[in-house]
Automatic annotation (TrEMBL):
Name listed for the protein in its UniProt record: 3-hydroxybutyrate dehydrogenase
Superkingdom assignment: Bacteria
Source species of the chain: Pseudoalteromonas piscicida
Pfam families: adh_short
Family designation: Belongs to the short-chain dehydrogenases/reductases (SDR) family.
GO molecular function, one term: 3-hydroxybutyrate dehydrogenase activity
GO terms (BP aspect): monocarboxylic acid metabolic process
Amino acid sequence: MTTAKQLSGKTALITGSTSGIGLATAHVLAQHGANIVLHGLVADEEGQAMAKEFESSYGIQAMFNGANLAQPEAISALMDSAIRTVGAVDILVNNAGIQHTETLEAFPEEKWQAIIAINLSAVFFTMQKAIPTMKQKGWGRIINVASVHGLVASLKKSAYCAAKHGVVGVTKVAALENAEYGITANSICPGWVDTPLISAQIQDFADKQGIEYAQAKRDLVTTKQAIPDMAQPNQIGELILFLCTDAARNISGASLPIDGAWTAQ
Ligand code: NAD
Protein backbone atom coordinates (compact mmCIF):
# COMPACT_ATOMS: atom_id res chain seq x y z
CA MET A 1 0.00 0.00 0.00
CA THR A 2 1.36 3.39 -0.89
CA THR A 3 1.43 6.03 1.82
CA ALA A 4 1.59 8.89 -0.73
CA LYS A 5 -0.58 11.86 0.34
CA GLN A 6 -2.16 9.82 3.10
CA LEU A 7 -1.68 12.72 5.51
CA SER A 8 -3.68 15.17 3.34
CA GLY A 9 -5.94 17.27 5.54
CA LYS A 10 -3.84 16.64 8.67
CA THR A 11 -1.66 19.25 10.30
CA ALA A 12 1.65 18.34 11.93
CA LEU A 13 3.45 20.57 14.42
CA ILE A 14 7.07 19.55 14.77
CA THR A 15 9.03 21.34 17.47
CA GLY A 16 12.64 22.04 16.61
CA SER A 17 12.00 21.60 12.90
CA THR A 18 14.48 24.21 11.68
CA SER A 19 17.35 21.72 11.95
CA GLY A 20 18.36 18.07 12.11
CA ILE A 21 15.76 15.39 12.85
CA GLY A 22 12.86 17.85 13.09
CA LEU A 23 13.55 19.43 9.69
CA ALA A 24 13.93 16.02 8.04
CA THR A 25 10.66 14.89 9.66
CA ALA A 26 8.87 18.01 8.41
CA HIS A 27 10.02 17.16 4.86
CA VAL A 28 8.83 13.54 5.13
CA LEU A 29 5.41 14.47 6.54
CA ALA A 30 4.97 17.28 3.99
CA GLN A 31 5.83 14.88 1.14
CA HIS A 32 2.90 12.79 2.35
CA GLY A 33 0.50 15.71 2.28
CA ALA A 34 0.48 17.05 5.86
CA ASN A 35 0.27 20.76 6.50
CA ILE A 36 3.27 21.77 8.57
CA VAL A 37 3.86 24.05 11.53
CA LEU A 38 7.60 24.66 11.48
CA HIS A 39 9.18 25.70 14.73
CA GLY A 40 12.64 26.47 16.06
CA LEU A 41 15.09 29.07 17.23
CA VAL A 42 15.87 30.90 13.99
CA ALA A 43 15.19 34.50 12.97
CA ASP A 44 11.54 35.06 12.05
CA GLU A 45 12.54 36.04 8.49
CA GLU A 46 14.39 32.74 8.00
CA GLY A 47 11.54 30.71 9.48
CA GLN A 48 8.94 32.43 7.28
CA ALA A 49 11.12 31.80 4.20
CA MET A 50 11.36 28.10 5.14
CA ALA A 51 7.56 27.91 5.46
CA LYS A 52 7.12 29.51 2.00
CA GLU A 53 9.58 27.00 0.55
CA PHE A 54 7.60 24.12 2.06
CA GLU A 55 4.37 25.49 0.58
CA SER A 56 5.80 25.80 -2.92
CA SER A 57 7.68 22.48 -2.85
CA TYR A 58 4.87 20.32 -1.48
CA GLY A 59 1.62 22.20 -2.27
CA ILE A 60 0.64 22.24 1.41
CA GLN A 61 -0.01 24.96 3.97
CA ALA A 62 2.93 25.83 6.20
CA MET A 63 3.52 28.31 8.98
CA PHE A 64 6.47 29.13 11.23
CA ASN A 65 6.64 29.95 14.92
CA GLY A 66 9.84 30.75 16.82
CA ALA A 67 8.62 30.18 20.40
CA ASN A 68 11.31 29.61 22.99
CA LEU A 69 10.29 26.34 24.63
CA ALA A 70 12.10 27.29 27.82
CA GLN A 71 9.15 29.62 28.50
CA PRO A 72 5.77 27.98 29.27
CA GLU A 73 3.85 31.08 28.19
CA ALA A 74 5.58 31.00 24.78
CA ILE A 75 4.58 27.33 24.41
CA SER A 76 1.00 28.24 25.19
CA ALA A 77 1.07 31.01 22.56
CA LEU A 78 2.65 28.61 20.01
CA MET A 79 -0.08 26.02 20.50
CA ASP A 80 -2.91 28.59 20.52
CA SER A 81 -1.60 30.21 17.35
CA ALA A 82 -1.23 26.86 15.55
CA ILE A 83 -4.69 25.66 16.55
CA ARG A 84 -6.27 29.04 15.70
CA THR A 85 -4.57 29.24 12.29
CA VAL A 86 -4.99 25.67 11.09
CA GLY A 87 -7.85 24.39 13.26
CA ALA A 88 -6.01 21.63 15.11
CA VAL A 89 -2.69 19.98 15.65
CA ASP A 90 -3.48 16.44 14.47
CA ILE A 91 0.11 15.25 14.66
CA LEU A 92 2.32 16.55 17.44
CA VAL A 93 6.01 15.74 17.16
CA ASN A 94 7.93 16.89 20.22
CA ASN A 95 11.44 16.94 18.87
CA ALA A 96 13.25 20.10 20.04
CA GLY A 97 16.07 19.36 22.40
CA ILE A 98 19.42 20.50 23.71
CA GLN A 99 22.39 18.75 25.26
CA HIS A 100 25.12 19.56 27.74
CA THR A 101 27.67 17.06 29.00
CA GLU A 102 29.36 17.32 32.39
CA THR A 103 29.69 15.15 35.47
CA LEU A 104 26.74 15.25 37.83
CA GLU A 105 28.89 16.90 40.52
CA ALA A 106 29.99 19.74 38.24
CA PHE A 107 26.76 20.11 36.21
CA PRO A 108 25.81 23.83 36.01
CA GLU A 109 22.40 24.51 37.56
CA GLU A 110 21.24 26.69 34.65
CA LYS A 111 22.02 23.88 32.18
CA TRP A 112 20.05 21.41 34.31
CA GLN A 113 17.07 23.80 34.39
CA ALA A 114 17.24 24.48 30.64
CA ILE A 115 17.46 20.80 29.68
CA ILE A 116 14.55 19.85 31.93
CA ALA A 117 12.47 22.80 30.63
CA ILE A 118 13.13 22.27 26.90
CA ASN A 119 13.56 18.48 26.68
CA LEU A 120 10.87 17.46 29.21
CA SER A 121 8.49 20.16 30.47
CA ALA A 122 7.79 21.48 26.96
CA VAL A 123 6.65 17.97 25.97
CA PHE A 124 4.12 18.00 28.80
CA PHE A 125 2.83 21.50 27.99
CA THR A 126 2.42 20.92 24.23
CA MET A 127 0.55 17.65 24.83
CA GLN A 128 -1.71 19.35 27.37
CA LYS A 129 -2.68 21.91 24.72
CA ALA A 130 -2.97 19.54 21.73
CA ILE A 131 -4.99 16.70 23.28
CA PRO A 132 -8.38 18.48 23.66
CA THR A 133 -8.72 19.15 19.89
CA MET A 134 -7.39 15.66 19.07
CA LYS A 135 -10.14 14.27 21.31
CA GLN A 136 -12.78 16.38 19.58
CA LYS A 137 -11.65 15.03 16.21
CA GLY A 138 -11.32 11.46 17.47
CA TRP A 139 -7.87 11.16 15.95
CA GLY A 140 -4.39 12.20 17.00
CA ARG A 141 -0.78 11.14 16.82
CA ILE A 142 1.73 12.19 19.47
CA ILE A 143 5.31 11.25 18.76
CA ASN A 144 7.91 12.33 21.27
CA VAL A 145 11.52 12.14 20.19
CA ALA A 146 13.23 10.80 23.31
CA SER A 147 16.56 8.99 22.92
CA VAL A 148 18.33 5.79 23.89
CA HIS A 149 19.02 7.95 26.94
CA GLY A 150 15.34 7.53 27.79
CA LEU A 151 16.14 3.83 28.26
CA VAL A 152 19.75 3.64 29.42
CA ALA A 153 22.35 6.05 30.80
CA SER A 154 25.73 7.39 29.73
CA LEU A 155 28.39 9.25 31.66
CA LYS A 156 28.04 13.05 31.94
CA LYS A 157 24.41 13.11 30.77
CA SER A 158 22.50 13.43 34.06
CA ALA A 159 20.07 16.15 32.95
CA TYR A 160 19.60 14.69 29.46
CA CYS A 161 18.96 11.17 30.83
CA ALA A 162 16.58 12.50 33.48
CA ALA A 163 14.64 14.47 30.86
CA LYS A 164 14.52 11.67 28.29
CA HIS A 165 13.49 9.01 30.85
CA GLY A 166 10.80 11.51 31.84
CA VAL A 167 9.65 11.83 28.23
CA VAL A 168 9.29 8.05 27.96
CA GLY A 169 7.23 8.02 31.17
CA VAL A 170 4.91 10.92 30.39
CA THR A 171 4.32 9.52 26.89
CA LYS A 172 3.07 6.24 28.39
CA VAL A 173 0.61 8.18 30.56
CA ALA A 174 -0.61 10.13 27.49
CA ALA A 175 -1.12 6.80 25.69
CA LEU A 176 -3.17 5.32 28.54
CA GLU A 177 -5.31 8.38 29.19
CA ASN A 178 -6.24 8.84 25.52
CA ALA A 179 -6.51 5.28 24.29
CA GLU A 180 -10.27 5.48 23.77
CA TYR A 181 -10.15 8.63 21.64
CA GLY A 182 -8.23 7.45 18.57
CA ILE A 183 -5.08 9.06 19.88
CA THR A 184 -1.76 7.21 20.07
CA ALA A 185 1.32 8.44 21.92
CA ASN A 186 4.75 6.94 21.43
CA SER A 187 8.38 7.76 22.12
CA ILE A 188 11.16 7.24 19.62
CA CYS A 189 14.56 6.41 21.07
CA PRO A 190 17.34 7.12 18.56
CA GLY A 191 20.98 6.24 19.05
CA TRP A 192 23.53 8.39 17.20
CA VAL A 193 21.91 10.55 14.53
CA ASP A 194 24.02 12.69 12.22
CA THR A 195 22.91 16.22 13.24
CA PRO A 196 24.44 19.41 14.69
CA LEU A 197 23.33 18.38 18.22
CA ILE A 198 26.20 15.93 18.62
CA SER A 199 28.99 17.90 16.95
CA ALA A 200 30.33 19.24 20.28
CA GLN A 201 30.54 15.68 21.64
CA ILE A 202 32.39 14.51 18.52
CA GLN A 203 34.84 17.43 18.73
CA ASP A 204 35.40 16.74 22.43
CA PHE A 205 36.13 13.07 21.66
CA ALA A 206 38.47 14.07 18.78
CA ASP A 207 40.39 16.46 21.07
CA LYS A 208 40.75 13.88 23.84
CA GLN A 209 41.91 11.14 21.45
CA GLY A 210 44.07 13.50 19.36
CA ILE A 211 42.32 12.39 16.15
CA GLU A 212 40.53 14.08 13.25
CA TYR A 213 36.81 14.96 13.53
CA ALA A 214 35.81 12.45 10.81
CA GLN A 215 37.70 9.63 12.53
CA ALA A 216 36.18 10.60 15.90
CA LYS A 217 32.71 10.45 14.37
CA ARG A 218 33.31 6.88 13.16
CA ASP A 219 34.94 5.76 16.43
CA LEU A 220 32.32 7.31 18.70
CA VAL A 221 29.48 5.39 17.08
CA THR A 222 31.02 2.00 17.83
CA THR A 223 31.64 2.84 21.48
CA LYS A 224 27.87 2.36 21.83
CA GLN A 225 26.28 0.87 18.73
CA ALA A 226 26.66 -2.54 17.07
CA ILE A 227 25.78 -1.02 13.68
CA PRO A 228 28.76 1.21 12.89
CA ASP A 229 26.83 3.98 11.11
CA MET A 230 24.98 6.94 12.52
CA ALA A 231 21.32 7.07 11.49
CA GLN A 232 20.41 9.84 9.05
CA PRO A 233 17.70 12.28 10.20
CA ASN A 234 15.23 11.22 7.49
CA GLN A 235 15.23 7.66 8.89
CA ILE A 236 13.72 9.04 12.09
CA GLY A 237 11.23 10.98 9.94
CA GLU A 238 10.21 7.78 8.14
CA LEU A 239 9.57 6.02 11.47
CA ILE A 240 7.47 8.99 12.58
CA LEU A 241 5.53 8.78 9.30
CA PHE A 242 4.83 5.09 9.93
CA LEU A 243 3.44 5.91 13.39
CA CYS A 244 0.99 8.30 11.68
CA THR A 245 -0.38 5.60 9.37
CA ASP A 246 -3.47 3.52 9.94
CA ALA A 247 -1.27 0.42 10.12
CA ALA A 248 0.22 1.81 13.34
CA ARG A 249 -3.09 2.57 15.07
CA ASN A 250 -2.51 -0.13 17.70
CA ILE A 251 1.01 1.00 18.55
CA SER A 252 0.72 3.24 21.60
CA GLY A 253 2.69 3.75 24.79
CA ALA A 254 5.74 2.25 23.09
CA SER A 255 9.34 3.43 23.32
CA LEU A 256 10.82 2.48 19.97
CA PRO A 257 14.61 2.27 19.67
CA ILE A 258 16.22 3.17 16.34
CA ASP A 259 19.69 2.79 17.75
CA GLY A 260 21.86 0.40 15.73
CA ALA A 261 21.42 -2.23 18.49
CA TRP A 262 22.85 0.09 21.20
CA THR A 263 20.26 -1.04 23.77
CA ALA A 264 20.39 -4.70 22.69
CA GLN A 265 23.66 -5.10 24.55
P1 NAD B 1 19.44 19.89 16.38
O1 NAD B 1 20.37 20.64 17.29
O2 NAD B 1 19.84 19.67 14.95
O3 NAD B 1 18.00 20.58 16.38
C1 NAD B 1 17.40 21.01 17.57
C2 NAD B 1 16.18 21.85 17.26
O4 NAD B 1 15.60 22.27 18.51
C3 NAD B 1 16.48 23.12 16.48
O5 NAD B 1 15.43 23.37 15.54
C4 NAD B 1 16.48 24.21 17.56
O6 NAD B 1 16.14 25.49 17.06
C5 NAD B 1 15.41 23.68 18.49
N1 NAD B 1 15.55 24.22 19.84
C6 NAD B 1 16.60 24.10 20.68
N2 NAD B 1 16.36 24.80 21.82
C7 NAD B 1 15.15 25.36 21.68
C8 NAD B 1 14.35 26.21 22.49
N3 NAD B 1 14.77 26.67 23.69
N4 NAD B 1 13.16 26.61 22.03
C9 NAD B 1 12.73 26.21 20.82
N5 NAD B 1 13.42 25.41 20.00
C10 NAD B 1 14.62 25.00 20.43
O7 NAD B 1 19.18 18.51 17.13
P2 NAD B 1 18.74 17.04 16.64
O8 NAD B 1 19.91 16.15 16.76
O9 NAD B 1 17.96 17.10 15.41
O10 NAD B 1 17.80 16.65 17.88
C11 NAD B 1 16.40 16.59 17.81
C12 NAD B 1 15.91 15.71 18.95
O11 NAD B 1 16.43 14.39 18.81
C13 NAD B 1 16.34 16.19 20.34
O12 NAD B 1 15.27 16.07 21.25
C14 NAD B 1 17.45 15.24 20.71
O13 NAD B 1 17.59 15.08 22.10
C15 NAD B 1 16.98 13.97 20.03
N6 NAD B 1 18.04 13.00 19.77
C16 NAD B 1 19.10 13.31 18.98
C17 NAD B 1 20.09 12.37 18.75
C18 NAD B 1 21.31 12.64 17.91
O14 NAD B 1 22.24 11.82 17.91
N7 NAD B 1 21.35 13.71 17.15
C19 NAD B 1 20.00 11.10 19.37
C20 NAD B 1 18.89 10.82 20.15
C21 NAD B 1 17.91 11.78 20.34
